[in-house]
Amino acid sequence: MKGYRFLTGTAVLAAGVLAASLTATLAAGAQAADYPTKPIELTVPYAAGGGTDLVARAYADAAKKHLPQSMGVVNKTGGAGAVGLTEIMAARADGYKIGMGTVEITMLPHMGIARFSVDDFSPIARLNAEPSAITVNADSPFKTFEDFIANAKANPGKVRIGNSGTGAIWHLAAAALQDKSGVTFNHIPYDGANPAVTALLGNHIEAVSVSPAEVVNHVAAGKLRILAVMADERSPAFPEVPTVKEKGIDLSVYTWRGIVVPKKTPQAVVETLRKASKATVEEASFKETLGKMNLTLAYADGPEFGQVMQKDNAFFKDLMTKLGMAK
């Protein structure tokens, strides 16, 4: 008949699929615009009590004023952070499972022990940055950094140094120190900084290479002693502790911690989290909490944080290749 066009079964099916896809897209857009409408999970790839966990909990608590939904912290440990970071990367990209990203995002992929890359995450905000430090038990025979290095040189492979997991930042820090100072350590991995510190307190190892913030309470209690920091300058919290650069070793190694989401997260959700994060780090309660724990506030908005991630990815790839750790 003139004036009418009949659709084939295939055309009808295609039109239905197109309509369903458009409807789903519009629905997803509406949900992103209304975000968040239910509680948010903040995944932490390390054990409770460590620096990453402490920053996450301070952030989640302070963010309550700037998001209409609560935020719960969940620790997912294992694989030097690979387990938790993989879960963040693989989460549904809707903003309801976000993550505390760490510098290991730029390291673990080069070791072949993680199936993600730095490009699998969208950066929201860097919150904190800390240097590595060499810390020993208060009753250790190593009274100075020079004592520590001299003993390691005299006893290759005998000095046990704990880290937060094979391939994690504190492992790499100790490996870099080993390379720069010409010694050989016995690297002992743990599922986070806190278990490594616990082992040091029990004299199961000779030292740890975690950040000053992760040992500060034990140092204050007279149980541990920091010998040196791997930083460009001395720590304001420990002005009496020298840098390794002062001791003739040109090395500085830092970790960072910040909020990341899966890369396909809708831009509206990303912007909501960026705005909330900026307001959160300006909260007096957040600053005070970090200050009490001797953690350093180092805020960077998403784009700047992304540049840091890309720069570190290139740096650690080169360093790990030099150290024979890359695959």
Automatic annotation (TrEMBL):
<feature type="signal peptide">
    <location>
        <begin position="1"/>
        <end position="32"/>
    </location>
</feature>
<protein>
    <submittedName>
        <fullName>Tripartite tricarboxylate transporter substrate binding protein</fullName>
    </submittedName>
</protein>
<keyword id="KW-0732">Signal</keyword>
<dbReference type="InterPro" id="IPR042100">
    <property type="entry name" value="Bug_dom1"/>
</dbReference>
<dbReference type="Pfam" id="PF03401">
    <property type="entry name" value="TctC"/>
</dbReference>
<comment type="similarity">
    <text>Belongs to the UPF0065 (bug) family.</text>
</comment>
<dbReference type="InterPro" id="IPR005064">
    <property type="entry name" value="BUG"/>
</dbReference>
